[in-house]
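User: Hi! Is it possible to get a structure for several chains at once, not just one? Here's what I have:
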Amino acid sequence: MDGNKKAFYFLFIPVALWLFILIILPHIDLFLSSFKPNSGEDVYTLENYSAFFADPIYWRTFINTASYAIGVTLLAFVVSFPIAFYLVKVISPKVSGFLMLLLLIPLWIGELVTIYGWVILLGEQGVINESLKFLGLIDHSLPLIYNNLSMTIGLLYMSMLFMIIPIMTTMESLDDAMIEAASDLGASKWTVFRRIVIPHAMPGIINGSIIVFMLVIGDYVAPNILGGKSSLWFTEQIYNQFLSTFNWNQGAAFGFLLLIISSATIWMALRLSGQKLDKVGD
Amino acid sequence: MKRKILLGAAALMMTSGVLMAQETLRLITWKGYVPAELKAKFEKETGIKLKITYSNNEEMIAKLRATRGGGFDLAQPSQDRISFVQKKFPIYQPIDYAKVNTAQLIPSMLEAVKKNSAVDGKGYAVPMCYGTTGLVVNKKEVEGKPDWSDLWNPKYAGKISYRLKRPLLIGAAFGMGKDPFALYGDKAAYQALIEEVTKKLIETKKMVKNYWTSGDTQKANMTNGGVAIESGWDGIGWQLHKANADIDFVAPKSGALGWIDTYAIPKKSKNIEGAYKFINFMLKPENAAVFTNKEGYGTASAGAEKFYKAEIKDNFARSFSKADIDNIKWHPPVPAGFEEIESKALERIKAAN
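Assistant: Yes, the chains can be modeled jointly so their relative placement is included. Here is the combined structure:
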């Protein structure tokens, strides 16, 4: 018993220290500095927060980013659900294990590299354009890159997995007998899907949606590398505050606004869809 | 609290310093500013090991600000981004010009940098190299001598590109017949001018193919991106010219924008002597020429020309007539608070449809 306790502290203390020194402390520091003016005066003010609402460029960009993130989340669901269903219910576990591995590989490589992979694929002289030209289907390169489409592809690609896995986990506990029973009672495929499969997978879908939404709204790499001349992302504005304007206080305030407003969006989405957050963990 | 974190970081750095017995020089610089050949030569001559971090102006300032001038022994900011930063967050120390081998520098450039980087009468930088921002064009499509205003010329609609950063706002203002540098003393007038430029660039945004973001994307635009005219750096334009003679760097009619990158010593530099050794080493004519021959940018080292390759001399002769050289608009030091105006303008342009 005593030895167990020692082992617990031995393992727990480094983690706690790590979290406290590298995550919690900087956040507190950032939070405090978000209430200080850039002039360096030692007073507290709300001006960094009010600046967000005062200038349409900031809140409009935020709304843009948030709507895009919602769109990408929906898309991720549409793409991921059939994949998750196929992996869990249709093919044998052996094959699905292998396919799962294929899904995980892009994650090992890192976001930056996979996004550059898309640059190579979609570029003006990229793999897709050159192949189409080689086949004689097009004369001039299609504008596949540096627009909202390529940005969406990049965002979807890097976040899809986080939708697939939670859905797979909940789907695994769905007894095949339920589906068979529903069919035996005369339900069409669509009804089975709508009344049995989706409700059962709901916690996974919510879970996945929250992760995907947060990942997308806070992403910096894909909008910057794959985005076009009009895809200004809110994270880029935070970056600009820190690096171009040297206004760290303003940047800190924007960072917290991103955290607060996106959390509020999730809370609202849960309320509207009649879901409860505590169910998600089930 | 912030101090505690910094102390912790400093303690870590010190222990790693003790572990490495060899003398080191930690340099934060731009990609390409220390050719491998010179790195090896410097390490052999002095026994000092170089540790290089690649960066750009904004990151350099942010990093040094976070450590209050620590973490690096030598930095390479542009000359116009030193004095206002130094006034606000003291991150550098004054240069002891007696320790710099000033005889091997171009005197006018040294004087200009000393003056532009000065805070309270003390200079904070030594010039290292210079270059210009102008236009890179494909001569098959662009005839005559272009100007900044050709970046919104309907003739090239769909074949235009630029980097959406502060030099573009400055260039565009010159293209509109204004002189933004003359307004550096008058914030309100400068803001009005930048608003005018912003309006112009938003109106003409539909003609722009893309905004390039790095030297690589700038090159790709010309080689296979279907771009006819773009804002660009001379060094990159000349590298493109080498591969395809139709493409070249051109000084715009209303003037190319001149920049000078420097050496500045961070406040908490741990190897000040090594830093001066490195500065003097890099600006030795034969060493400076190695850099220029490789990257194409001009050097502040006097007498390096005689070590230049023929194509380097050609580049300068082709792109800059005597009049063009006299017309180069050298970036004066950026006044405090201006970056805020520009940053907002750039965000507006990017967000517009």
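Chain B is about 45% helix and 15% strand. Chain B has two domains: 2-128+259-312, 131-258+329-351.

User: Great, thank you!
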